[in-house]
Amino acid sequence: MRVLVVGSGGREHALVEVLAQSPRVEEIFAAPGNPGMAQLAELVDIPADDLISLRNFARAAGIDLTVVGPESPLIGGIAEAFWGAGLKIFGPSRAAARIEGSKVFAKELMRHAGVPTARFEAFDQMPAALAHLRSIPPGDGYPIVVKVDGIAAGKGVTVAGSYEEAESAVRAAFAGTFGAAGERVLVEEYLMGREASVFALTDGRNILPFVPAQDYKRVYDGGEGPNTGGMGAYSPTMWMDPVTYAAILEEIVTPIVHQLALIGAPYTGLLYAGIMVTDEGPKALEFNCRFGDPRDPGFVAPDGDGPPGSARSVRGRGHRGAGDLLVHRKDRLRRPRLRGLPRFVFGR
Ligand SMILES: Nc1ncnc2c1ncn2[C@@H]1O[C@H](COP(=O)(O)OP(=O)(O)OP(=O)(O)O)[C@@H](O)[C@H]1O
Ligand SMILES: [Mg+2]
Description:
- This protein has helices at residues 10-20, 51-60, 71-75, 78-84, 94-101, 103-113, 126-134, 163-174, 242-262, 296-300, and strands at 2-7, 27-32, 42-43, 65-68, 89-90, 120-123, 144-148, 157-160, 185-189, 194-202, 206-209, 214-215, 233-234, 269-278, 281-288, 337-338.
- It is of the alpha/beta class.
- It has 3 domains: 2-90, Rossmann fold (3-Layer(aba) Sandwich), CATH 3.40.50; 119-189, Dna Ligase, domain 1 (2-Layer Sandwich); 192-338, ATP-grasp fold, B domain (D-amino Acid Aminotransferase, Chain A, domain 1), CATH 3.30.470.
- Strand 10 (194-202) and strand 11 form a beta hairpin.
- Helix 5 crosses helix 6 and helix 6 crosses helix 9.
- Residues 300-331 have low confidence and may be disordered.
- Bound molecules: adenosine-5'-triphosphate and magnesium ion.
């Protein structure tokens, strides 16, 4: 099998290393890749966002499977571009990748699916957002979380301890700091608890969950610095008990996969759920349409000799829908099935 990995970070390096261990993989290409992976993969000088050149390369080079690392090509529709050319690709359609591309979409999806998550309000005008902030009681009402709707490289989220902080986050978003990503803003209830990441492979009907992982979010020793997009991670999350883990799969992951199928945007690929385990049980913080970077592919790789893309998820049957929440399909789809559980010991 000739495999193309799209992306250039530590995540893609990890994917290349995992793929290289498979006896079924003969040759690996990486576009654009990085020098660290050059011993295992042939670097191809095409940026990860140049979807058409990637597709043309894959066709010309006889690539059997493409594995996409970063979110932006997926949100841009790389899966459809490849499927349209009869090429196999690991990753969700553009419609399904909106679960990461738009936090408002993800929230609406959660609401329709009955998934527990933080209460929120969304705004596309600054005055309304500021009026909402002014209605929050100082003191008790804080912290509050301000998020831009679109992707902002991990910088679009502010956990605000005061009205002033929240206001400046709202003003920055509407001033265009994050470009189009900040045209809509969410103001969200702050959830207290322990954070974990849960990953699952799915073809939209079957769900194969992985061992949960946990980020080191704060910079500096002892976690004393500000929150970041993640400074590293470990897995499994030993503190998580099996009941909580089962609840995450049953109450968060499965209904979301089901809901996406119901709206005509079945999810194929790796779904990454950001979870807060609160006193009231696990709640969803967010979803990503890919592995985390740089940490996950190495330690969450499936058992056995299959590369991530050998799962049925690459077949990508469903790429027909626009993913509009209001256009529910009339035919009744069965709830996706959980297939097997990762082998790891809880709570050691
Ligand atoms: N409602 C909330 N309550 C408490 N903390 C939150 C909440 N929402 C987000 N956070 C914190 O902010 C971090 C980033 O939020 P979120 O995951 O929504 O943003 P992101 O930019 O998509 O992140 P990533 O880069 O991990 O995809 C979370 O990992 C969590 O630590
Ligand atoms: Mg995210």
